[in-house]
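Batch manifest, entry 17 of 40.
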Amino acid sequence: MESSLPLVLTRDGNGPLHLQLAEQFRAAIRDGRLQAGHRLPSTRDLARELSVSRSVAQAAYDQLHAEGWIAGRTGSGTYVADVVPLQPVLRTAARPPTPAGPVLLTLRPGIPYISPTVDAGWRRAWREVSGQAPPGGYEDVAGLPELRDALVEHVRRVRGIACGTENLMITEGTSHGLRLLLSVTRRPGDKIAVEDPGYTAAALTAKQFGLEVVDVGVDEDGLQVSDLGTDLSAVYVTPSHQYPLGGRLPVARRNELIRWARRTGATLIEDDYDSEFRYDVAPLPALAQLDLDRVVHLGTLSKVLSPALRLGWLVASPEVVNQLAAYREQVGDWPGWPMQAAFLAMLRDGYLDQVIRRSKRLYADRRNHTCAVLAPYGQIVGQDAGLHITLLLPPATDDQAVAAAARAAGVEVAPLSDYRRTIPGPPGLVIGYATPTDANFHQALTILCDVLRTT
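Output type: structure tokens
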């Protein structure tokens, strides 16, 4: 049976005629006006009926045939294919947007200060990238070779790691480097030790890969190495500024940790966040400088320039880097060229060093002020480095309630209990001092002090 449908084609900018025609046939099949097995007019008859050229009708049929809506039968004609139409999704009317509440001031940790004005060095880097032609194919899976060379010099100079380009891979940051490492070098059921309290995202990532997370306590110096068992496959550690309590793993304990790893064959995963910012003496050399066969070092730009850049690096033995590179080549998981090229420009003209020097002055002043105004309310720990301090509160305090009261008053602050998993300890607040503008920083501290006085 041939179809007789109210087909209307317009020449007023609604698209090519053959696509208009194809869409009207689709709509008729979807809503049931055309059923499976219905015979369609020939292209000659359809063109005559619509007063268009036969090529328009033929192009519409070709499109519908390619998509599977119609099928030809030799010597018989063209028919609607056996397509079961989907029922349309019923959409409810969109709710009006909820009126925005007051803007919260943030004292949460882990986010650097981002100036509202654009630095000249930042502009120079992106101008340099915009003047370059992009690569003709996929770049080196371990990262832009020139950037890896420059980063090798950087980590040698500022972190004391004696390594070569074969030891370094560009990542999209610490979390990406950790996921990459766990996906390639660990197996479900392996045990990994994670500091408690510690970086909750690291523990969650390990669990997502099927690893068994073993919580290990920390003290004022960081990870308690003596508590590590002999059946561990890996240890995730923050030796330069334990997250979130701020302990700095001393040399003797670092040596003990390396000896333990050599004895057990475990991998030490060094999260080197915040290492650029130490306010009493020069930053401690990285744990990786002691043994690249046992340590995988994770660095990031998130705490220096911006978390939005999603760029970092991984330093490890050549064998590990080659394993990761082979995996990345299979899955296509590496950072894009423009960001790598811009970072290379920032390294070459000294912009990264400039930002670190300027930021250290700002953060040192803010650290001093934060400690001075919060000292009456508890014990301050972790103040010698990083972008946050931890305020330990009296034992009976509910830090969740204090954080909730602060939020109700207009300030976001992280309760220490959010970073604990199984090992108990005192309540507290983890307070970042880097992110706000100067005015918001002082206002937020004033509000927080008012909350601490009344809770």
